[in-house]
């Protein structure tokens, strides 16, 4: 790589709005989300920078900085800016997509979340990589405290609108998310907190156990074509006797395939993050972390249709059976701020191998347009490769589905074997037409 250039993009005005991070966000403030958009042609760096500056006026939290005030984590919207790096990369588009599996993939400048929470560091970074075949990789990384995927989509929509000269979306910052949600959440929820307190033994060995788990983890990428997913839905819906979504069946299929390949006969645990806006009638313009989760325990040996049916029931009955924000808040308050570091999400469970499955389908990520171009592919990037974690997005050009997941190295090897491939893609037929880019990416399952 060469021709490396970094500039800090500023909105040009500071609102000085102070966002008091929720208690749940404070617990999760060591987390970062990183993603890459791939475009077929080059993008003008100056136009991108100018557009980003205007987008930061719509969603200023991304240009702010964190601080701690009286034991409370806060975001100050002070227009401290966003570092934007532009450089040349030696890989082609297909090679770049394949490299996202690797820990050294250089298409994102990952936010250092633990350091950023101490103050003074960016909450969003942007990297524009000009690829060898003329394509562009646009990598973004943001601090979890700023907001969830819906919040990031608002920023991207504002950025796209600024570059394309269209009307930007409305965005509403929550200065006190806990107070806002307290007025919307039902008085009683599922009663199950979304966190657990590590016991002394776990807390003492956590860092060592996490380090070992990360060393033994590999990232896999898989593509499921549109016809493949349709056959999957048809068969499992018929078996279940009810309509199942693509997310339902793909999550269940991946989970049961991994368990079968790993000869796992124990009860399975599944955590699925859910955007709570539609359940609580919160406008999509609200910026913040408005995410709950469906948490399921699947019977040993449960078939794919049975697991998919459980998922569908959990999503439909989310508010009554799985919404846990009020209970989680009370749980964390009882634990006390001195022990927040020992409070972890239920999905963080190396012993029981809880599988966390996140779907970013339906967010409109393929509608993001720069200079008339829409993405060929949008993908997560795992900067922290903890096992039993997967993200599902729409596939190449919005056709089919693309999955990126972190699993133990042994499972990754089994999944890439001929038998593993046959099981993962048992709904694919030889006559299925795959996108050309999907055929070019090396080691794509």
Please explain how this structure is put together.
The chain is of the alpha+beta class. It contains 16 helices and 19 strands. A 6-stranded mixed sheet has the order 1-6-7-8-3-17, with helices on both faces. α2 (45-58) crosses α5 (149-164), α8 crosses α11 (304-316) and α9 (246-261) crosses α11.
Shape: globular
* Alpha plus pi helix count: 16
Trace the largest sheet across and list its strands. 1-6-7-8-3-17
- Percent of residues in beta strands? 15-25%
The radius of gyration computed from the alpha-carbon positions, rounded to a whole number of angstroms, is: 21 Å
Keywords:
19 strands; 445 residues; 34% helix; globular; 6-stranded mixed sheet; single chain; alpha+beta
């Amino acid at each position: 790589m060469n021709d490396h250039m970094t500039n800090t993009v500023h909105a040009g005005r500071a609102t000085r709005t102070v966002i008091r991070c929720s208690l749940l966000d404070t617990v999760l403030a060591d987390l970062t989300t990183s993603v890459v958009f791939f475009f077929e042609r080059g993008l003008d760096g100056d136009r991108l920078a100018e557009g980003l500056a205007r987008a930061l006026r719509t969603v200023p939290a991304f240009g702010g900085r964190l601080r701690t005030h009286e034991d409370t984590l806060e975001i100050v919207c002070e227009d401290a800016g966003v570092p934007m790096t532009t450089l040349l990369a030696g890989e082609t588009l297909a090679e770049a997509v394949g490299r996202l599996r690797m820990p050294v993939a250089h298409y994102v400048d990952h936010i250092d979340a633990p350091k950023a929470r101490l103050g003074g560091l960016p909450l969003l970074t942007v990297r524009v990589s000009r690829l060898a075949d003329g394509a562009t990789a646009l990598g973004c990384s943001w601090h979890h405290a700023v907001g969830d995927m819906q919040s990031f989509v608002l920023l991207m929509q504002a950025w796209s609108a600024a570059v394309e000269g269209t009307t930007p979306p409305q965005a509403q910052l929550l200065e006190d998310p806990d107070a806002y949600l307290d007025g919307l959440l039902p008085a009683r929820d599922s009663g199950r907190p979304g966190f657990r307190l590590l016991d002394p033994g776990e807390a003492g060995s956590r860092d060592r156990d996490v380090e070992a788990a990360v060393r033994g983890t590999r990232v896999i990428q898989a593509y499921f074509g549109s016809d493949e997913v349709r056959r999957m839905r048809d068969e499992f819906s018929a078996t279940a006797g009810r309509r199942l979504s693509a997310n339902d069946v793909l999550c269940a299929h991946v989970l049961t395939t991994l368990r079968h390949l790993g000869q796992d006969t124990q009860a399975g645990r599944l955590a699925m993050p859910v955007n709570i806006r539609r359940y609580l009638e919160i406008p999509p313009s609200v910026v913040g972390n408005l995410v709950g989760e469906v948490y399921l325990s699947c019977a040993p040996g449960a078939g794919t249709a049975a697991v998919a049916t459980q998922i569908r029931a959990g999503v439909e009955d989310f508010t009554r059976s799985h919404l846990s924000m009020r209970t989680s808040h009370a749980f964390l308050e009882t634990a006390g701020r001195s022990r927040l570091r020992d409070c972890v999400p239920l999905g963080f469970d190396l012993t029981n191998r809880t599988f966390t499955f996140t779907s970013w389908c339906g967010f409109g990520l393929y509608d993001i347009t720069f200079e008339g171009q829409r993405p060929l592919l949008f993908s997560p990037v795992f900067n922290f490769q903890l096992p039993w974690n997967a993200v599902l997005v729409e596939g190449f050009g919005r056709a089919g589905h693309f999955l990126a997941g972190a699993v133990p190295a042994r499972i990754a090897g089994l999944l890439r074997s001929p038998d593993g491939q046959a099981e993962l893609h048992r709904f694919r037929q030889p006559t299925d037409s795959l996108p050309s880019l999907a055929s070019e990416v090396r080691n794509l399952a």
